[in-house]
Amino acid sequence: MGPPQSSRALILRTRAYGESDRIVTFLAEDHGKLTGIAKGARNSKRRFANCLNPFTLVRVHFRQRRSATLVFMDSCDLLRLPDTLAEPLKFAYGSYLVELVDLLTVEAEPVPKTFDLLANALDALRTGPATPAFLRSFELHLLADAGFAPRLDGCDSCQEELAAGTPCGFDATTGALLCSTCKTRRENLVDVSEAVRAALVRLIDLDPAAARSLRLPGDVRGETADLLGRWLSLHLPRPLKSLGLIESLTR
Hints:
The protein is of the alpha+beta class. The chain has helices at about 90-105, 110-125, 130-145, 195-205, 210, 220-235, 240-250; strands at about 5-15, 20-30, 30-40, 55-65, 70-80, 170, 175-180, 190.
């Protein structure tokens, strides 16, 4: 067993294991995404009390186990409860943010920017709605943090700057944006209007909390959601379960 370590962490998901244990996946500020075993957590009244629900901010105390994929969780100190994130609609959108982070991070790779992004977005969600601009900003920043930042200023084929006022094309198989000339040489592209590209450029310059008040026109709102959904699907290992929950609560 390795030496004791500790870090602030956000609980991503948890499940029962055996009669009294829990398997917990958390995003640690200093260590990235880790999955650990919390022995006796289902019966503990001190070491893990109120600490293992999704969205909870904790300080986790753990030890690495040699030749094991799971860390051993000694205890957690509660730093912040989910609070209003337990409300159905906020829970659904919080689950979406957490699931995206979970699927776009790998085990034991430090991602301090992603930790801050998720922590700040959950804090913003506690006090206000998940507007379309809020969600699109989060998606763009997360893609950038994961190394999949969409190029918004130039053509991926000819490398020329995308001219203002002209539409471009999106290749859903590669995630490339193509200028009006290069897009004529490929098939089955998604048209991207100048208004949509301008909205994406604006959104990536704002953190989700600041972007929340940005109003997107109806057509731009729908097109940016569709476009980022396609971008994300290129890098996600499976469909998002949380989308079904959001749909069931908003239809």
